[in-house]
Amino acid sequence: MLCAVSHGDPLFIFRLTPLVLALAELDAAATDALLAECGLPASATRGAITAPLSRVERLVEEAARRSSKRPFGVALARAVPFGTYELAELLVRTAPDLERGLRELERHASLINPVGRFEVRETADETELHYFVHGTTDALGATMNEFTFAYLHRALDDVTPGGLPLSRVWFSHRASEDAPALRACFGVDVTYGARTCGLSIPRGSSPTPLRTADPVVFAFLAKQGQERLRALGDRSAAAVVVDVIESQLGFAAADLDAVSARLGQTPRTVQRRLGDEGTTFREVLEDARKRRAEAMLADGMPFATIAEALGFSGVRSFRRAHRRWTR
């Protein structure tokens, strides 16, 4: 059974499928069946994939349900090697202090995954780190929310002398039977049903120098990070439109009015800016669909899955488009 793609289903970069499947202890046949059930390509077993967030959520939740390891998100966080999140993670680890590390995570979150956002907020008593995904109410889903903050806790605990001084942890999803175990893992109160996911530390702890601080490496990485962010920010109007389609709306909901609304612009303005680059919204959408279809076909995904994901009315409509693209 295929997992439907909702109109607001953003594309998500997922690096952990091999670890998720290993923790679920599935044999080859069960692995293939689970990936097919979740509408994910066989190539997911070999490394990073980009797929609708709902499908990744379903894979992780199904793996958690079948695994004996509880809480599954915490077990996954303990299995992930440090450095998995590359530049953004290394900037945190080499930052001069905990406060700067959190600020670097906030600044470079889009290098990890463009659909999510970290935000540091200061209160009178605490420094809070919030995480949310635009267009969703429960961020990444229960298990991946718990994984995200279990991994953050582990990584920050590793670089903070004496360990990370947690005050609170909260999640946007509902509590489950794992709630007592999660509280034991974090060692602090955990609440559920919040507007974001997050953790907090006492306000006076944020200037704590990190054990792995390295000013030379940090300066080099910060320069690399600025260049990567500039490359993301200095994109053409067409690239911005494609990003909105792929990471926020999904192809099924990708019409000019919806994209313009997400950009905070009028349809006329969007069309004008695309026209300045010698293209139109229809041409940009067509090209984005073509490139996404080529990638999905290369991953061995069936025509029915591709037609649904790309917003075609059916397989026949997609086949006509595919013939047009390959003439």
Task: Provide the descriptors you would attach to this structure in a database record.
single chain; 327 residues; alpha+beta; Arc Repressor Mutant, subunit A; 3 domains; 5-stranded mixed beta sheet; two-stranded antiparallel sheet; 15 helices; 7 strands; 54% helix; disordered N terminus
3D structure, described in words:
With 327 residues, the protein is an alpha+beta fold. It folds into three domains: 11-68; 86-230, no CATH class; 235-325, Orthogonal Bundle (Arc Repressor Mutant, subunit A). Helix content is 54%, strand content 11%. The chain contains 15 helices and seven strands. Strand 3 and strand 4 form a beta hairpin. It is globular and about 65 Å long. The two termini are 32 Å apart.
Summarize the entry for a quick read.
The protein has 15 helices and 7 strands. With 327 residues, the chain is an alpha+beta fold.
Rg (C-alpha, Å)? 21 Å
Q: Give unreliable regions as ranges.
A: 1-7
Helix coverage percent:
40-55%
Task: Describe the strand arrangement of the main beta sheet, using strand numbers.
Answer: 3-4-7-5-6
- Secondary structural class: alpha+beta
Overall pLDDT confidence: 87
Number of structural units classed as domains? 3
Task: Please tally the helical runs, counting DSSP H or I stretches of 4 or more residues.
Answer: 15
User: Sheet with the most strands?
Assistant: 5 strands, mixed
* End-to-end separation: 32 Å
Strand content: 5-15%
